UniProtKB/TrEMBL annotation:
It comes from Streptomyces vulcanius. InterPro entries: DNA_brk_join_enz. This is Core-binding (CB) domain-containing protein. The lineage of its organism: Bacteria, Bacillati, Actinomycetota, Actinomycetes, Kitasatosporales. It comes from the Bacteria.
Amino acid sequence: MAVLHGQGRRQGEARGYDGIRRYLVALQPTLAAWTAANLTTLREISQDQVEKAVDGLSGHARRQLAICLRSLFRALRQERVIFRDPTRHLPVGDLKGVPQSVPRDMLAGLLDQVTTPLGRLAIALVAVHAVPGNDIRTVLTTDLSLARGTLEIRRGLLRHTVYLEEFTHQLASEWLTYRHRRWPASTNPHLLVSQKSALDPDQPAVSIGLLQGVLPKGLTLEGLRQDRILNEAFETADPLKLMPHFQKGIR
């Protein structure tokens, strides 16, 4: 508990006691089962035993237990209580139920197939930053700051900051240049506008159908977003870092 609260040998992210309590509640049945099996120390836990602990679960329950186990053993290794992390290769998602990734060759040439600045920016926000399509269509021009390299995503009173890497920053700049040149009289506050919405006095957001229409046949905005999340989940060393970046709900 002290390690999760930021009081370990090395300085790390300090989690609140409410969050730590949820971790312990999620871990309790597994720890009790290992104790009943006469395992007296977590040093005895093997990779097979960890995998068996999550095998009977699916969906949210499996993800939650996998995340908690990885966090527990990572903390123990950090404190040199154990020298081998049995959860190192434990997938966080339910591999039997996860959606299939978009083929890599299709992703690689995706932007080359899109001819409009709007389409290229929309695809980058989904495929690189995993921003949901419905959030992209409601972003306001004032939410984008090229100077700071940020994009604010709104949901009611809540905000989430997307930090743009160089490529998406360039696409955002190209879109703004195109938009101002194409519709200089537009007062629509939304960042993305179309031929129909740019000069509409009601100042509507573009439709999700318009965004979907920029994709090659067979791909969807949500499919691209899921692919981005899956790739990150399999590449990252710390699944907890995925949560603030890719959760659908924004804190």
